[in-house]
Amino acid sequence: KDGSHDWTHGNGLVALEGGDFLISMRHQHQVARVNRDTGEVIWLLGDGGDFALIEGQWFYGQHAPTLRDDGVLLLYDNGNDRPGGPPFFSRAAGYALDLEAMTATETFSWIVPEYTSFLGGVQTLGGDATLICAGGVRNANGPNQPISGVARIIEVSKSGEEVWRLEVEGNVYRALRHEGLLWSDP
What is the rounded distance in angstroms from the CA atom of residue 24 to the CA atom of residue 8? Predict the structure, then answer.
């Protein structure tokens, strides 16, 4: 719509058990499940896709989709082109997918401190905690608003409380916790 040649902006590719994969198409505000062998699009998730949204709101300009074992799809919702205009916001979001009824229900939403128009990710941690990467902070509430220039990596508890936060000057593409990298005192 803006004359860009990057009409999908594929920014996430996730291999699933059984051979299918997820692809995130940021500029189309869609996540597709694709059959690896045939190339057939099995379903599209997002505004205008194959699922009816039962509860919550759709994502826009997303990054880093992940399909958990319990059928919940997590992603980072940057919020680009979200209908309704300002105030702009970004968040981590999760959707329970019912593949028989073709419905999606938002099960998780955590709004980050500043609108992050690019970059980001979400990871489920043990104990039902969530790691959120708000990586490309540039605009607090829109294109002409003050900016902090601070990327944030935030752990959130199951109840939605912030457990800890790391702030970094500049951009962070993605953050993942890897067990075994931390040490403990004997």
Answer: 9
Q: For 50-90, what is each residue's pLDDT tens digit? A: 999 999 999 999 999 998 888 899 999 999 889 987 778 99
Structure tokens at 15: 């291999």
DSSP track, 111-152: E-SS---B--EEEE-GGG-EEEEE-B---SSSTTS----EEE
Give residue 143's Cα distance to chain centre. 21
Q: Residue type at 101? A: A
Partners of residue 94 on adjacent β-strands:
74, 108
Radius of gyration of the chain from its Cα atoms, rounded to whole angstroms: 17
pTM of the full predicted structure?
0.86
Q: Under 8 Å CB-to-CB from 88, ≥6 apart: which residues?
A: 79, 82, 115, 117, 139, 141, 142
pLDDT tens-digit readout, 101-137? 999 999 999 999 888 888 899 998 877 899 999 987 7
Number of H helices, E strands in the chain: 0, 13
The dihedral built from the CA positions of residue 149, 133, 108 and 82, taken in this order, carries a sign that is positive
Token reading at 127: 């104990």
